[in-house]
Amino acid sequence: MLNMAAGLARLGDLANHPVVSTLAQAFADAGHDLAIVGGPVRDALLGRHTHDLDFTTDARPDDILRIVTPVSSAQWDIGRAFGTIGARIRGEQVEITTYRADSYDGATRKPVVAFGDDLEGDLTRRDFTVNAMALRVPAVTLVDPTGGVEDLVAGTLRTPIDPRMSFGDDPLRMLRAARFSAQLGFDVEENTRQAIEDLTGSLSIISAERIQAELSRTLRETDPVRGIRVMVDTGLADEFLPELGAMRLEVDEHHHHKDVYEHSLTVLQQAIELETARNPGAEPDVALRIAALLHDIGKPRTRKLEPGGAVTFHHHDVVGSRMAKKRLEKLKYDSATISSVATLIELHLRFFGYAEGAWSDSAVRRYVRDAGDELDRLHILTRADVTTRNLRKARRLAAAYDDIEQRIAVLREQEEIDSIRPDIDGNRIQEILGIRPGPDVGKAYRFLLELRLDEGPLGEDEAEKRLRAWWAEQS
């Protein structure tokens, strides 16, 4: 429940922030209005930490630059065409934007920039009422023309104007509804939700890069599951990630009480909990979270009904890895993220063979080798993939994974398990066998690597002996 008295007190603290007071005085001395706008005001009322300071003013860009230059250590005008001037003041980066009264051309989401003359008009063009509040400074006056405070109290996301007009102007706002739902824990107001359902097709004018950015921002939140549900339930996800909705009706053979979609959301939430526990204070791991969300997307395509009513999803790990790679490429994710996600999905079932019977050291080495740099993420994903309600089974699987992690730790102490290489390199292979660079060197290298994986470090003398014997057999 929002405590308004405390919230208003925090607004006073925000107005007294050194950066705010410096700018407020500078603009007042120049005869211009200034107001803190959007997220900082919302977060102050909610008692959340404010990361960025955004301001709006009646001053035009040239005047803004003139006013901030004496009180800032750096300035940049890359957003001048849109009315935005950036500056670094007392070590903090801020943006000051001229009141806007934009319109959109209907074919793209690029606005036809028009500067406005009043704060209230600027606020009504923003995405949601909870982001359409401003704090005038230095007067410390809250300006809320669209009922943002009431929606904060109700925990509601609502557009300042008719949602069809708002989303028609900028369809990306529909994805922001999902992100803010995840960030704030708010519900999307019914009329706003209905407008999203009716206008999902308008996402087609939004670039893949912008959609990807909003999806990633949603996944970075503390509760992205809430945002994902908004995307799927409204049909938004069908426009850029249709594999999510396709999982809703598929039964998971390991978890009969949940369909694959619900199972995947549970895995995502559990992965986040494990990620936070293992890496406290670290930035959210988007690649891990994507892998958790998509780890079973291959199931609908591999679903098969067996005699007796059983359902199988053979090779859904390999199929899902390929599907995820293609989808992430379409969303313009970077190659490192795509590679990480594809590897994690392909390997996410590997551990369950260990749970059925302890692996040899050779199998553990191969597990580490195949996971490579993704091993820590794979630990988290595999543990998170256990969603059974059978507590006995859950404890058995957890104990098995405790054991494999301990085995890996022991092998790390005994040998270089994270960068497994043969005891003899390619140059030495050529010297020993008297051969030139070519396919035979690669075959010999792979032979020695398999020995290393099977038996651990052999030492150069023993490796040479085995190599010569192998080469004699080849000859």
Automatic annotation (TrEMBL):
<dbReference type="Pfam" id="PF01966">
    <property type="entry name" value="HD"/>
</dbReference>
<dbReference type="InterPro" id="IPR006675">
    <property type="entry name" value="HDIG_dom"/>
</dbReference>
<keyword id="KW-0548">Nucleotidyltransferase</keyword>
<keyword id="KW-0808">Transferase</keyword>
<dbReference type="Pfam" id="PF01743">
    <property type="entry name" value="PolyA_pol"/>
</dbReference>
<dbReference type="InterPro" id="IPR032828">
    <property type="entry name" value="PolyA_RNA-bd"/>
</dbReference>
<dbReference type="GO" id="GO:1990817">
    <property type="term" value="F:poly(A) RNA polymerase activity"/>
</dbReference>
<dbReference type="InterPro" id="IPR050264">
    <property type="entry name" value="Bact_CCA-adding_enz_type3_sf"/>
</dbReference>
<dbReference type="InterPro" id="IPR014065">
    <property type="entry name" value="tRNA_adenylyltransferase"/>
</dbReference>
<feature type="domain" description="HD">
    <location>
        <begin position="260"/>
        <end position="400"/>
    </location>
</feature>
<dbReference type="InterPro" id="IPR002646">
    <property type="entry name" value="PolA_pol_head_dom"/>
</dbReference>
<protein>
    <submittedName>
        <fullName>Poly(A) polymerase</fullName>
        <ecNumber>2.7.7.19</ecNumber>
    </submittedName>
</protein>
<dbReference type="Pfam" id="PF12627">
    <property type="entry name" value="PolyA_pol_RNAbd"/>
</dbReference>
<dbReference type="InterPro" id="IPR006674">
    <property type="entry name" value="HD_domain"/>
</dbReference>
<keyword id="KW-0460">Magnesium</keyword>
<dbReference type="InterPro" id="IPR003607">
    <property type="entry name" value="HD/PDEase_dom"/>
</dbReference>
<keyword id="KW-0479">Metal-binding</keyword>
<keyword id="KW-0547">Nucleotide-binding</keyword>
<keyword id="KW-0819">tRNA processing</keyword>
<dbReference type="InterPro" id="IPR043519">
    <property type="entry name" value="NT_sf"/>
</dbReference>
